[in-house]
Write a structure and sequence with these properties.
Distance between the termini: 99 Å
Shape: globular
Number of helices: 29
Radius of gyration: 32 Å
Structural class: alpha/beta
Strand order of the largest sheet: 8-7-9-10-11-12-13-6-21-19-18-17-14-15-16
Helix content: 40-55%
Number of strands: 22
Amino acid sequence: VAGPGEVVAAFSLRRDEAGMARLTRSAAQVFAGGVAVDWPAVLAGCGGRRVELPTYAFQRQRYWLQDGPAAGAAASDAPGDAQFWEAVEKEDLETLAATLEVGRDLPSLGVVLPVLSSWRRQRREWSALERQRYRIAWKLLDRAPVPELSGAWLVFVPGEGADHPWMAEVSRALAEHGAHVVRMDVSDPDRDVLAQRIREVAGALGSEPEQGGVRGVVSLLALDESRHPAYPSVPGGLASTLTLVQALEDAALDAPLWCLTCGAVSVEASVSDVLASTAQAYVWGFGRVVGLEHPQRWGGLVDLPDEPDEHARSYLCAALAGLGDEDQLAVRGAGVYARRLVRAELGSGHSWPIPQGTFLITGGTGALGAQVARWLARAGAECLLLASRQGPGAPGAGELAAELAGLGATVVVAACDVSERDAVAGLLAGVPAGHPLTAVVHAAGVLDDGVVSSLDPARIDRVLGPKADAAWYLHELTAGLDLSAFVLFSSAAGVLGVPGQGNFAAANAFLDALAQHRRAQGLVGTSVAWGPWAGEGMGARHRGHGLQRQGVVGMAPGMAIAGLEIALTLDETFVMVADIDWEHFAPGWTLPRPSPLISDLPEVRYVLDGGGTAVKAAVVPLAARLAGLQGRERDRVVLDLVRAEAAAALGHASAEEVPAGRAFLDLGFDSLTAVELRNRLNAATGLRLPATLIFDYPTPDAVADELKAQLVQHQEPSALEIIDKLEAAVAATTGKRKDANRISRRLQALLVRINSDDKIVPKRDILEKLESATDDEIFSLLDDES
């Protein structure tokens, strides 16, 4: 059944000469005002000639089929297609008539043109949204054989007072499967103290896992749902996990870290598998960032069932032993599930009916909140309550209120710190009885970017307060109201992880979990994990930096609002809406470590299997490039590499835009681009550099010196390097005639050997002695070798 402006179409599937799948339109009919357009009458006005009317264009969209990608093609490849659709979109009757070679006074053409124009615009938005909507799915993995673990496993548990069935069961499971378990209580997490304890334990166990050393690290710290004593917005489990990650880095222990939770995710939408712990969900968002910043030290996340049993213990050990590259897992009765990002179906398009009453928008005077308010006002919302920290004093608040009032809405702008429960309660108490609260849109939030190594509970608290705490207060204080919508503005950072945003990712993972928690309680709840919006807002700070260059495009606000309306229309609990060019995003995102999370997206499979248009240059290890080089030439190669990779991370066309002595932060680096540069240098050098590289070595010169130090510390000196050292020693003998004569005789003898057919092969012991020899010792060695 087709309504006004909708299309009934038939497609056929064929294969082209290369064997690629192609979709071909075979029939279509456009409906105008509920009545089918009389195409025969239109054609009759063309003198009986047959006219091909392009009724649909795929634009530049790929349709992914079971056996691989098929490039989208237009319904007709006729040269006039572009001109036709341009005329339709502009509703230019004269140009359209000329394109079709018919008279502009043709009655049917005038009727159908506005319908085609509206339909074309809607289809453009619809097609874009089809590509930009994602959801989370859980994939049951093939059952792995019973694992056999080896070596020592450190198991970190919360201190006294923490009680959970899995506290003892995890150690039991590891021991049952062959591991030597070392349990470590963390009662008062201090970074330095914990790092020292880890060094001592690891040192006692030995450095090599194969020889009984530390093979893995398991953290149960997330099970602690108490609050940090000094920063009440921060769960104790999240704070302890942060400290553990930092301590492992300080102790230079590279064994993979696995963070365990219980009830922090829901695998199936059923009463038997509900998300029971929103507090533990923080660690899932945080852990995804740890995996990007510390790829060699990260094992993954595993969510456990409520009841430990033999099967669950075995499944857990299978996960810890390694199920390929899987790093986001859930153990359930049926086996082990892996987290996947898949596309969300768009469904049928019907507008969300705007309910009467008051809409509360937190962050209402900010860029995103203002866009939501404009949409609601245009759609007929009665009353808008815009809450922000500054309220009427926020920049542009007065102009926004006047604009919304001009659209017919009653507008109240209120100052409210939504991170304070009493303030939220007072805000809700002020909602007029004549316009009761009908919907909540929580769009407030702040950023405080920093790599994990630089975070502390204070910086986490600053982000969690207005984002996560405020959401919980709104949830609690409106639980008894009959709301039509409870919308949480989350972020793709909580779904994918973004380097430098560990605290922000944790807060947004909590919002996604809260929406599921509300649904389990029979309440409305929709969390939308946004990619960056174009224009102003929190995502603007990364525009022109890492995310955009990696293929994440800022969405037009109108398109984002359309995505929000669809999520409300479909009554979705969670959806991620982001404009991601996977062909560019996937290779860089998987550079530090594979990402099974996105691996089931057909575009990602295609690109990572070698398809797509991205050029993959062969990487020559830097150590190989430096072989045979010396002194200034080697310095130049290393510095050129650092400057080139820094320029690429910043999106510059040339390394000339990265001065060797200028600070990275002055060049525009932030936490995200810092990690991107680290990943690039790791790939180019084969080293394992820390995420804090540019903070520890703040200029390209300093980074180049550190790379040289790490790359050449184990290399034998070349003959030319030995001559350099000899030359410096000779210069120091000025005025010592006896030494000069000895040197002259030895060099003459050496030149005779060089010019003869005999090969000079320095002995290894001589090279080792020369590397650390004094000037007098060098002369003695030369005499000995004569």
